[in-house]
Structure formats: C-alpha cells, structure tokens
Design goal:
- It comes from Streptomyces argenteolus.
- Residues 93-113 are annotated as: Disordered.
- This is Restriction endonuclease.
- By secondary structure, this protein is of the alpha+beta class.
- The protein has two domains: 3-96, no CATH class; 125-237, Trna Endonuclease, Chain: A, domain 1, CATH 3.40.1350.
- The protein has helices at residues 48-51, 93-96, 125-139, 175-188, 202-211, 229-237, and strands spanning 3-7, 14-18, 22-23, 29-30, 41-42, 52-56, 63-67, 70-72, 78-80, 87-88, 91-92, 157-159, 162-167, 191-196, 215-218, 224-226.
- Helix 4 (175-188) runs parallel beside helix 5 (202-211).
Length: 239
C-alpha cells in the first residue's frame, strides 16, 4: 500500500496517508495513484464529480470509478488527497473527461447467436421482474435468482457476476436508483443492469452512461428495449 505525507492547511498537522485498496472485478487489488508533493485540498462542498475518481486496474486494464481518497484531520477539516489522472490514448483524464468503465471484458468482441426472445406479458410488478429474469437468461447470464421477498437493497435479481434492479413504478427511474444499484454492484464486485417500466430521467440516463450501466425499458408486451449505449453493447457482446 502506498503512503504519502499530508499536511493539513488549517492546523498544519502532518499525517501519513495510506492509499485505500479496492478489489477490481478481475480480483486484483486496485488503488487510486496518489500525487506525491501535491497539497491536500479542504472540502467545503461536495459534488459527484469531485467525490469519485477514475482508476485503471494494472492487471486487466479495466477502468472504474472509485471514491476519491479523503482524510479527516483531528482539527475537523476534511481533506481531499490529489490523485494522478488516468491517461487514455495519450490524453489525460483531466483533458478528455472521465471515461466510462467497460461493462464487458475487452477480449470479447461478439456474442454467440441467440434464439428469438419470447416475451412475457406484463400485468403486475412481479411479471416485470419475471420478464427481466427471462431476458437476462436470454442474454446469457447463468443462475438467475429471483427472491420471493424484495430485500432492503432493492436488488430484484442476482446471477453469476450480476445484480439487477427492476423499477415497476409509473414514474421515470431517478438518478438515485442508478447510483444505489452501482454501489451494490461495486460492493459485490459484479456488474449491474437496470430495467424500468416508465423509462429514466435525464440525470439517471447520463449517470448510467458514465458508469457503463446497461439500461432497459420494459413495455407491457414484455419486450425489453435498450435505452443506452451500454445496453446495446451488452446485447451485441453478451455477459
């Protein structure tokens, strides 16, 4: 684990900060690369872009969003630790903007041929979950499990390497649902997929694109339709 000296600009106290390590879905430990010598910055207000940082796994090359390293000084000041930007094709993240993590292994280029999907007419919220389960199996996910009672995490379906949520309400799925699903997937080191009957807010769609979460819209005939680029990629490439 990497350790860097950090001075609090408020009280001038010195700290030795140890980089947090997170598990990449490939199993390798991954840590944000800290910028030695760069001053820590006090946090006065929070935004999503500042609270998360793009990190590349040195083993598999996967690029994901991880919590930005922070340190809480005993004086009460919360400090953000500077992180080296991730370079992509000769352009740094700071210049090119944050990139979405890839939802599929880079070595995969095409899915195996599938038979036509047989939809299930949706009359109830339970039907919506059952349709999503059928669709995930059709995409190629194994061991799709539908719990009898929806857990507090709001995860409706689990499969090998996947968690999925099904929003059967009549309102567009909000940003919070996308972020909560992503955090659940992050904690379990698996991928995530979201289904919705009423579509998505613009903020939810934009965030899902940034996190590479496939979004599908369910119609009452039971045929899921891709609602963003990651969903199109999942259909063409497979899990």
């Amino acid at each position: 684990m990497e350790s860097v000296p950090v001075r609090c600009p408020a009280c001038r106290r010195e700290h030795a900060y140890i980089t947090p390590v997170y598990p990449c879905p490939c199993g390798s430990p991954t840590a944000p690369p800290l910028m030695r010598g760069a001053p820590a910055v006090p946090i006065t207000h929070r935004t999503w872009n500042d609270d998360w940082v793009s990190v590349r796994c040195h083993s598999c090359g996967r690029r994901d969003q991880w919590p930005h390293p922070e340190l809480c000084c005993p004086c009460g000041t919360v400090l953000r630790i500077p992180v080296r930007p991730v370079a992509t094709r000769g352009i740094t993240q700071a210049a090119a903007g944050p990139a979405a993590p890839s939802p599929v292994p880079p070595s995969r280029t095409a899915a195996r041929p599938r038979p036509s999907f047989r939809p299930l007419v949706i009359r109830t919220a339970r039907d919506a979950v059952s349709t999503a389960a059928l669709y995930l199996r059709w995409l190629g996910y194994r061991d799709v499990v539908q719990p009898e009672v929806r857990p507090s995490s709001r995860i409706d379906l689990r499969a090998a390497g996947l968690v999925a949520q099904v929003d059967a309400t009549t309102r567009p799925t909000p940003l919070r649902d996308v972020e909560c699903l992503w955090l659940n997937a992050l904690n379990a080191s698996v991928a995530a997929v979201l289904f919705s009957l009423a579509g998505y807010t613009d903020e939810a769609r934009s965030r899902a694109d940034g996190l590479a979460i496939p979004l599908f819209v369910l119609d009452l005939t039971g045929t899921p339709q891709p609602a963003n680029g990651p969903a199109d990629e999942l259909i063409s490439v497979g899990p």
